[in-house]
Design a protein that fits this description.
5-stranded mixed β-sheet; 347 residues; alpha+beta; binds flavin-adenine dinucleotide; 15 strands; 5-stranded antiparallel β-sheet; FAD/NAD(P)-binding domain; Polyamine Oxidase, Chain A, domain 2
Length: 347
Amino acid sequence: MPIVDTDVLVIGAGLAGLAAARRLHRLTNPLRDPTGAPSAALAGIGRLSDRLRFAALATRLATIDPDRLLAAPEVSTQTALRRAGLSHRIIEELLRPFLSGVFADRELTTSSHVFAMVVRSFARGRIGVPARGMAALPRALAAPLPADRIRLDTPVERVAPGAVHTAAARIGCRAVLIATDPTTAARLLPDLPAPRMRALTTYYHAAPEAPLREPVLLLDGDRRELVANTVVVSNAAPTYAPPGRHLIATSVAGPAVPEPVVRAELARLYGRPTADWTHLTTVELPQALPAADPPQGHLRKPVALGDRRYVAGDHRDSPSIQGALASGWRAAGAVLRDLRAHHADGE
Ligand SMILES: Cc1cc2nc3c(=O)[nH]c(=O)nc-3n(C[C@H](O)[C@H](O)[C@H](O)COP(=O)(O)OP(=O)(O)OC[C@H]3O[C@@H](n4cnc5c(N)ncnc54)[C@H](O)[C@@H]3O)c2cc1C
C-alpha cells in the first residue's frame, strides 16, 4: 500500500505512514493544508477503576518533565516497579496483568523508559476507542490527502535506490519512506535490524447480557496469568456489538489458547456463567508489537538511513499509537530537510 506524494514515496498506510504522508503533503502543498486535527469521535471508555492503585504512580509519571524521565537510569519495567517501592502484591495482581496487555510482555522486561512514557500518556490523556472503530484513526489521517495519491492493496516487494518495485510496476522516486511493520521493513531494508516481536491474541464474544455495566478494563488479579484484561467494549462503544447484544473483548499476551479455556476464565473473572456467550472470533497476532527491552535510550531511533531511504513505525519510537505517529512525523521532517538541502545545492 504505497502512499505517493510528488517525489516522495511512503510505503505503508498504517498510522506512521499516514502521519508522515500528512506532514509531507502539508508542507509540500501548503494551499491544500488541512486545518483540522483528526476528527475521529472518541468515545471514552472511562478511567480505570479507583481500585487500580496504579493511578498513584501514573500521576507521578504524568507530572515529571519527559526529559527527566528519559534521563533516569534505564532498567526493565519489573525492576522499575520494585524500585518505586510498589508491593509485590500490587505488581502481581494489578500492574503485571495491566502492563502485559499493553506491551504484550508478561515478564515486564520492557524498558522502564517505554513504561514511563506510555504510562505518562495514559495518565495525561483519555482512554477510549473511536466510536466508528479503530479504522477511524487512519481514515481521519488520510482524509486530507488526495485520494489518488494513496494506493492500497499494492504490496511493495523491493526497494532499490530511487525506486520501489511492486508485482506490477517499478515506481521511481527521489526519496522512499518505509512505514511498514518492522519485519517487512527489515526485509525491504537489509541493513535495518528486525526487532523481536511480541504476540497478542484477542477473543471477541457476544453476550445477551452485559456481565458488567461499566466500561472498565477488568484485570485478572488472581495470578492465573492467562487473561491479561477483558472489557465489555460495547459499554463504551455500543455500535461495536452485534444488534441487541454486548461485545466482550479479552486479551491474552502471547499465542492463542483454546477458546473454551478463555471462556471458563471469563466466567470466573466476571463471576457469572458464560455458556450463553457466542464466540465471534479470535484475532491472533504473532507479530503484534515490537519488543522494547533496554536499551531504548531516549526512544527516538534513527529514521534517516542514507541514500534517501527513511523508516518510520512504532519500532522507531515506543510500541504504541503515539510512537507510530511521532515516528512518522519525525521521518517526514527528515525527508523534508534532506530534500530542501539537496534543492539548495542545486540538485
Ligand atoms: C491488539 C493490539 C492492541 C493495541 N492497542 C493499543 C492501544 O490501546 N494503544 C496504543 O497506543 N497502541 C496499541 N497498539 C499498538 C499500535 O496499534 C501500533 O503500535 C501501531 O498501530 C503501529 O503503527 P505503524 O504505522 O507503525 O504500523 P502498522 O499499523 O503495522 O502499519 C504498517 C502498514 O504497512 C503496510 N504494509 C506492510 N507490508 C507492506 C508492503 N510490503 N507494501 C506496502 N505496505 C505494506 C501494512 O498493510 C500496514 O498498513 C495495539 C496493537 C495491537 C496489535
